[in-house]
């Protein structure tokens, strides 16, 4: 297929595709799916070999968020029966992180619900970062605390944070449809705060919220313009009790096409398979390893993932290897950022490809009841 040959060539040169080419990836048929995966896999292997980076989430504060993000089980007004607890103490968070590190995680992601941290919250998280680094000096720590105020990113950096996560989630044009309590521009500003402080920026998206193909391409091109070091791709987990509980419009095949499109647009960036992979990719998860070079190990913020051992077995069985702490994730040229221009070819908005409602697997959405905030052992 000429399209795929062109995209591989561009990916190997770090040349970005046009919007038209990115849209064409999403429009490919199921008959062409393995060809799409194989093509994007060539680009993935060029920059990351067969390494898979493992990341581990620690939910520092769960639920009771004042923001109204429609996709989130912790949102204002959520009726999802998730765990709710206030800030974990530094030693509690450190123990939770240690379980992930013991399971092979190279990065620990410290997440707290809320609009953004107060200065006191930054102090709490700084103490937690110190406790984690004291026990595991080589582990990367990424903070995800919401919108940052002036100077807060610098304080996290001084405390030992390596990265900051703040996702764009969806296109600027449709952002107001999923959230009204803050804006797309607010999120962009926070990513730039993190970058300005010298933190490695982590920013991604959520697919499966009813968006069009054009929306998906727009948010990925928006991310490429921001130039984060890592791009997590989440697939909506339709929690009962949230406004998007009925949004079951992803198939495993569409999820793989989305991941391939992200890889072509972000060829040399850490693309992370994040929340919702078990729900929407299901038995097709191993194929996704040919597209992404990073996954979360074990559970997510408020939902349970597959067993940590199953993750490790999947990686080994698919012929990949877990990335060690002595290996640099990103290719050397990304130290100074990627300066390749984004393509901007015109394209028409596409309609989302919906799955049959009867195929919705609500049985795969399992609320987290173990790990941080409970007396039960974590999944790692």
Task: Write up what this structure looks like.
The protein has 380 residues and is an alpha/beta fold. The chain is built from 13 helices and 10 strands. The protein has helices at 2-12, 19-26, 33-48, 90-102, 119-135, 152-159, 175-178, 184-196, 213-226, 252-265, 277-280, 285-288, 308-317; strands spanning 51-61, 107-112, 140-144, 163-165, 200-202, 205-207, 230-235, 270-273, 294-296, 321-322. Strands 1, 2, 3, 4, 5, 6, 7, 8, 9 and 10 form a 10-stranded parallel β-sheet that branches. α1 (2-12) packs parallel to α3, α4 (90-102) packs across α5 and α9 (213-226) packs parallel to α10. The longest helix is centred in the middle third of the chain and has 17 residues, at 119-135. The chain starts with a helix and ends in a 58-residue tail after the last strand.
Question: What is the topology?
Answer:
Blueprint: H1 2-12, H2 19-26, H3 33-48, E1 51-61, H4 90-102, E2 107-112, H5 119-135, E3 140-144, H6 152-159, E4 163-165, H7 175-178, H8 184-196, E5 200-202, E6 205-207, H9 213-226, E7 230-235, H10 252-265, E8 270-273, H11 277-280, H12 285-288, E9 294-296, H13 308-317, E10 321-322
Parallel strand pairs: 1-2, 1-9, 1-10, 2-3, 3-4, 4-5, 6-7, 7-8, 8-9
Structure characteristics:
about 375 residues, alpha/beta, 13 helices, 10 strands, globular
Question: Gist?
Answer:
The protein is of the alpha/beta class.
Nearest-integer average pLDDT: 92
> What is the helix content?
25-40%
What proportion strand?
5-15%
The radius of gyration over CA amounts to 19 Å
Shape: globular
Number of strands: 10
Q: Biggest sheet, in brief?
A: 10 strands, parallel
The chain-level structural class is alpha/beta
- N to C succession of SSEs: HHHEHEHEHEHHEEHEHEHHEHE
**Uncertain parts:** 336-353
Number of helices, counting only DSSP H or I runs of 4 residues or more: 13
Question: What separation lies between the terminal Cα atoms?
Answer: 41 Å
């Amino acid at each position: 297929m000429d399209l795929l040959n062109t995209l591989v060539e561009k990916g190997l040169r770090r040349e970005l595709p046009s919007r038209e080419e990115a849209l064409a990836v999403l429009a490919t048929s199921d008959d062409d799916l393995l060809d799409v995966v194989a093509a994007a896999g060539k680009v993935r292997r060029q920059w990351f070999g067969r390494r898979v980076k493992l990341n581990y989430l620690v939910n520092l504060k769960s639920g009771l968020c004042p923001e109204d993000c429609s996709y989130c089980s912790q949102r204002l007004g959520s009726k999802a029966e998730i765990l709710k607890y206030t800030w974990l103490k530094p030693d509690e968070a450190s123990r939770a992180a240690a379980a992930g590190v013991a399971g092979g995680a190279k990065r620990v992601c410290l997440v707290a619900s809320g609009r953004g941290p107060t200065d006191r919250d930054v102090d709490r998280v700084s103490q937690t970062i110190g406790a984690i680094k004291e026990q595991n000096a080589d582990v990367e720590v990424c903070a995800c605390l919401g919108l940052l105020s002036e100077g807060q990113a610098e304080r996290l950096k001084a405390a030992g944070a390596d990265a900051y996560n703040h996702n764009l989630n969806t296109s600027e044009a449709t952002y107001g449809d999923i959230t009204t309590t803050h804006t797309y521009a607010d999120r962009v500003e926070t990513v730039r705060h993190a970058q300005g402080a010298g933190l490695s920026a982590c920013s991604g998206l959520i697919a499966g919220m009813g968006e069009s193909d054009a929306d998906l391409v727009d948010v990925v091109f928006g991310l490429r313009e921001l130039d984060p070091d890592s791009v997590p791709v989440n697939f909506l987990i339709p929690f009962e009790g949230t406004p998007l509980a009925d949004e079951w419009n992803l198939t495993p095949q569409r999820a793989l096409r989305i991941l391939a499109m992200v890889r072509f647009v972000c060829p040399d960036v850490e693309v992370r398979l994040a929340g919702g992979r078990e729900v929407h990719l299901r038995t097709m998860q191993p194929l996704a390893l040919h597209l992404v070079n990073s996954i979360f190990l074990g559970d997510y913020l408020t939902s349970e993932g597959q067993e940590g051992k199953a993750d490790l077995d999947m990686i080994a069985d698919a012929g990949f290897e877990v990335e060690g702490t002595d290996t640099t994730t990103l290719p050397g040229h990304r130290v100074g950022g990627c300066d390749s221009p984004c393509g901007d070819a015109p394209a028409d908005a596409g309609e989302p490809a919906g799955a049959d409602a009867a195929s919705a697997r609500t049985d795969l959405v399992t609320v987290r009841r173990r790990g941080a905030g409970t007396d039960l052992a974590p999944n790692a």
